[in-house]
């Protein structure tokens, strides 16, 4: 409890909030205002850290993943698939599907040791890259690879 209070005071003095520590994550995602953004769906339970919709009804899944584990990429595919499948009721036309964008903030890689800070996965025709689906995306931001100093940030 005292540790959390010290973290909270330190964060309050800082210009930036570190979501990788408990106090920072609670400030960003644990407030009363942000609780309404958390959603649990039926069947295999899914709890998104944040689920948002824009004016066009596209969905944005925001997840924080500090600890790496096998199956992380597959789990995010499942999240995207569930967010897509939950949009239609029997008889609805598939053309009414809206975009689903997963934004995954991590402190771990996703299956490789690359130095990439940002990875953007989309569905694409790999034969000639001529066709792609931009409305289904998985964006991974590996915070451990973020290389800017505080004075370089805006």
Give structural notes:
It is globular and about 55 Å long. It is 25% helix and 26% strand. The protein has helices at 2-13, 22-29, 32-35, 72-85; strands at 40-41, 46-47, 50-53, 59-65, 100-106, 118-124, 132-142. The strands form 2 sheets. The protein has a 5-stranded mixed sheet, with helices on one face. It has a two-stranded antiparallel ribbon with strand order 1-2. Helix 1 (2-13) packs across helix 2 (22-29). It is built from 4 helices and 7 strands, in the order αααββββαβββ.
Based on Cα principal axes, name the global outline. globular
Distance between the termini: 32 Å
Unreliably modeled segments: none
- Strand order across the biggest sheet? 3-4-5-7-6
Number of helices: 4
Radius of gyration: 18 Å
Q: Into which percentage range does the β-strand content fall?
A: 25-35%
**Strand segment count:** 7
């Amino acid at each position: 409890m005292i540790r959390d209070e010290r973290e909270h005071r330190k964060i309050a003095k800082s210009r930036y909030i570190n979501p990788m520590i408990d106090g920072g994550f609670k400030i960003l995602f644990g407030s009363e205002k942000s609780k309404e953004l958390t959603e649990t769906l039926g069947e295999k339970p899914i709890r998104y850290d944040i689920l948002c919709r824009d004016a066009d009804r596209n969905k944005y899944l925001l997840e924080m993943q500090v600890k790496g584990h096998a199956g992380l990429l597959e789990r995010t595919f499942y999240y995207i698939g569930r967010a897509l499948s939950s949009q239609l009721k029997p008889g609805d036309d598939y053309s009414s599907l809206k975009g689903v964008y997963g934004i995954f903030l991590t402190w771990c890689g996703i299956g490789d040791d690359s130095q990439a800070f940002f990875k953007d996965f989309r569905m694409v025709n790999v034969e000639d890259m001529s066709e792609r689906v931009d409305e289904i995306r998985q964006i991974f931001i590996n915070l451990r690879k973020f290389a800017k100093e505080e004075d370089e940030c805006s």
